[in-house]
Amino acid sequence: MFFKQALDKQLDHWIADLRDRANLPVRLRLWNGNEYPLGRFDHPAVTLTIREVGALPLLLTPSLDNLGEAYVQEKIDLDGTLSDIIAVAYRFSAAASAQAGGALARVAQHFAHTKAADKASIQYHYDVSNAFYRLWLDPGMVYSCAYFEHGNEDLATAQRKKIDHILTKIRLQPGQTLLDVGCGWGALVIRAAQKFGARCVGITLSQNQFDLATERVRQAGLSDRIEIRLQDYRDTAGTFDRITSVGMFEHVGKDNLPAYFGRMRELLADDGFAMNHGITSPDPDSGATPMDGSEFMDRYVFPQGELPHIGMVLNALQRGGLEATDVELMRGHYRRTLQHWADNFEAQGDTIRAMVGEKKYRIWRVYLAGCGHAFDTDQMSIYQVVCHKAGLSSQSLPWSRRYIYDKSLD
């Protein structure tokens, strides 16, 4: 009885303090049915249900990582629209961070990126099942930031425009050879061969992606122009006129970036161009930010994923013997892409839950919606960087960026 009274008193004090400081549109419901408003709202947008007494300590330090962990482990339930849930989670975490005395310390993580470890990480994320990804991606199954030229495109159109935007940026010409590092399910190489007349090699470490990409190339009648390989970029040989890497270098590791770009340089023809499209950290020191949920991401979504600041990317690129010729911020485009993905995921929620189980359903639900909010609020960013071998004559470069936009993206 004494313990219950002490707990109730502590909880009442915490709720009153949080309500005064944060005024959240949240109804807190305990396992015993007791309810408490966390803000001054007649109709709270979100109901946070604590399913067991052991989950109460997370309320004292409700970071994004802790909230995500509790949700995935089914210690709490969150009811409301997905956008409201994510917005509240960020406000909840920010209020707790302020109460604890300021922002969380930035931590720079470093992992051992051996070939075996990288392959295991890639297969953990991408080999859920092709059917799973097909439920919420566009028909081309492009799993990277789309390009919304006008802002009102549907997802399939924006993904096709993203591929054309990239291939136009690197000035891909008929008959040229193209290497796509981390080729996914083959959409870029298929487009490069069909529309631009290129001869392509796509590499991936995902068995599921390799199998389906190979089949899609065969169905498109392009087996004589496209080769899909189950291969690490460090084991790839040859010389290519153009190289693309889309949504792959996040798995390389910050310490390995100079060697990664150096390998790209070795594979690139002397007059060739390459393009790296990847997620970055807004932290100048290339560490975690207080509200990026990086611990949750590493534990459940992208094992060993590391995000460098764009400054580190450009530094590593130069150390690898390449020179950046064009840099474009794509943060707003990824926010819109993730909104489409999250909406598709919600629409297919019952099917996905039955397919992958409750835990994995919850992981991906939080990941997709949370990342959309992170890109919207500059907790994560993303850039496309076009480059060529350093030390070449400037005469090989166009005078302006007009060439990127003069060609139709339709």
Would you mind describing this structure in some detail?
The chain has about 400 residues and is α/β, with parallel strands linked by helices. It has two domains: about 1-100, Nonspecific Lipid-transfer Protein, Chain A, CATH 3.30.1050; about 115-405, Rossmann fold (3-Layer(aba) Sandwich). The chain has 15 helices and eleven strands. The strands form two sheets. A seven-stranded mixed β-sheet has the order 7-6-5-8-9-11-10, sandwiched between helices. Helix 7 (about 185-195) links the parallel strand 5 (about 175-180) and strand 6 (about 200-205). Helix 2 runs parallel beside helix 10 (about 295-300) and helix 13 packs across helix 14 (about 360-375). It is elongated. The N and C termini lie far apart (about 70 Å). The model is unreliable at about 100-110 (pLDDT under 50).
Mean pLDDT metric: 87
Global geometry? elongated
What is the radius of gyration?
A: 23 Å
Kindly identify the CATH topology of the largest domain: Rossmann fold
Largest beta-sheet characterization = 7 strands, mixed
CATH hierarchy: architecture of the largest domain: 3-Layer(aba) Sandwich
Show unreliable segments.
100-108
Q: How are the strands of the largest sheet arranged?
A: 7-6-5-8-9-11-10
Q: Termini, distance in Å?
A: 70 Å
How helix-rich are the residues, as a percent range? 40-55%
How many helical elements?
15
Helical/strand content category: alpha/beta
- State the oligomer: single chain
Q: Tell me the β content.
A: 15-25%
Q: What is the fourth-level CATH superfamily of the largest domain?
A: Vaccinia Virus protein VP39
| Strand count | 11
The number of domains is: 2
Order of helices and strands: HEEEHEHHHHEHEHEEHEHHEHHHEH
For this structure, what is the CATH class of the largest domain? Alpha Beta
